[in-house]
Amino acid sequence: MRITKRKKKIIFTTVGIVVTALMLFPVYWMFITSIKPLNEIYVDPPLFFPSDPTIQPYIDIFTSKNSMLHYMKNSFIIGSGSMLLTLALAAPAAYGLARKKLIGVVILMGILIATQMFPSIIMATPLYIIFLNIGLTDSFTGLIIANTTNLLPFAIILLRPFFLGLPKELEEAALMDGCNKFMSFWKVILPLTRTGLITVGTFTFLMAWNELLFALTLSNDNSMRPVTVGIYSYMGEYAAEWNNLMAASFVSSLPIIFAFIFLQKYIVNGLTTGTTKG
Amino acid sequence: MNLKTDASINVQTKPKVKNKKFKKKIDLFTDHLFIVPSLLFFLIFLFYPIVYNILISFKEMDVSNFMDGGTWAGFVNYKAILTEPLLYKSLLNSAIFTLSCIIVEFILGFSLALLFIQKFPGVNFMRGMILVVWMLPSVVVGTLYKWIMAGDSGVLNFLLEKMGIISEGILWVSSEKFAMFSVIVANIWHGTPFYMIILLGGLSTLPRELFEAARIDGANAWKSFLTITLPLMKPTIFVLIMLGLINSFKVFDLIYVMTSGGPLDATTVIPYYAYELSFLQFNFGQGGAVSGIMLFLVIILAIVYLREMRKEEIG
Prior knowledge:
Chain A is an all-alpha fold. Chain A is built from twelve helices and no strands. Mean pLDDT of chain B is 86; it is low at 1-14. The longest helix of chain B has 32 residues, at 85-116. In chain B, strands 1-2 form a two-stranded antiparallel ribbon. In chain B, 38% of the residues are buried. In chain B, helix 5 packs antiparallel against helix 12 (234-249) and helix 7 (138-148) crosses helix 9 (179-203). Helix content of chain B is 74%, strand content 1%. Chain B is mainly alpha-helical. Chains A and B meet through helix 1, helix 3, helix 4, helix 5 and helix 6 of A and helix 1, helix 2, helix 3, helix 5 and helix 6 of B.
């Protein structure tokens, strides 16, 4: 019995390693291509380990006329702006919607779930025309608002279970102590839902970082454009220089890789609570 | 701000018994205040644009007159779109893309979940690494797969030739025959980890005793999977399939980066078609009409989803 259990463990571990390696091979290929000099890219058979690794592709994309740094700065502004606006709107809304006696909770949650399903292109056309009329195209504000339309329903749905989980007595105690509702929300409730706020904050930042369609349609000016549009324009610029393209792809994936390493626990928990209780 | 101070003054001066009832009313009122900012945001930036989009679809609106709001045209755009073969082609493409992705991602995701629900050394690390794939930007995934599946020096062709599956390199992304297959493969790789993590969440809530009991009764692994795991996982599976349906239907970034809808419209899906009409041909009216059709389809899906969700909650 003990031996078979041990054997099972060894089999599972082996299969696990093989599956993970297969799944991650494309990521490996992205990285390995990004450190190859141009003459090693088109050799046949392809090199699975570069014989002459170089950081030239990274130097190229950071010193190019349209520097990667510029695109990353824009993505960072759009990402953090969208995250802050989404959290500022979503946290009180999720709290309000967690109070069962609120009129129309079921209908409101239904509408939220439905709006989450709309493809962005449905929003992109009208937002483009509306923003053009009020001067919000080619502005970070416009991009942040557009992203928030995408993120807000998602954030409220994901945050609500965290507020539902709080004991009501806590808030009552705060109210007894002379806090009003807004103070107790700010001083008592919000700190207790920190986990939820971190989870949703991370998600919204990364989703805004990954966004392409709004960035493409609502900003014609390169000075506002984020990494996603940047990579696409590199495709034209570098054409067949796949090492540079892979370097740009790798650099723009770094925030995601970091977020996962540091916040994996939050993200996985948040995701499963959100979808099963949504 | 004013309201807040008024309320507290009132509460303090009222006698105790009345006070309670009054306070409850105030409470209920302030609860509603919390959702007002979001509600306003939705009305202005979500609801209004969607209504505006429907209006556009009934207007003649292109690059010459869109700043003046276009001119009313009745059903002209819908008539033009509904007689356009490309609409049906893109509907069909969307259906092929969505169905293939859901089926394969579900099977792969479930297999991964069944593997990674086991306890063995390094399992958490492996789960985490696989999840990284899911959070990569679609633009990166598209660029990466364009390179991996490149016809001349793509590593996929090399590996397949080496294994003897193909005799000469295939132009995956740039041929009409294989372009759809290519974007589906890229999307499956990108989306499978999401299925895995949701199914893992569902699997971890199943009571272990049931499986023990089944084993004692002599059921093998396959049988207990069919008779216990699947039925108990039904709610999770339903949610997942709906989310998968929506996410695959929404696909835009991957198509834009890998194929731009081509070659010969082989990968033009509905969202890309709407983009093409509005932002490449600047025919906002017809683009709006395609969006209108999409909106209609999504709302039907949403209603089905919500009804089923409510049944789950009651039952």
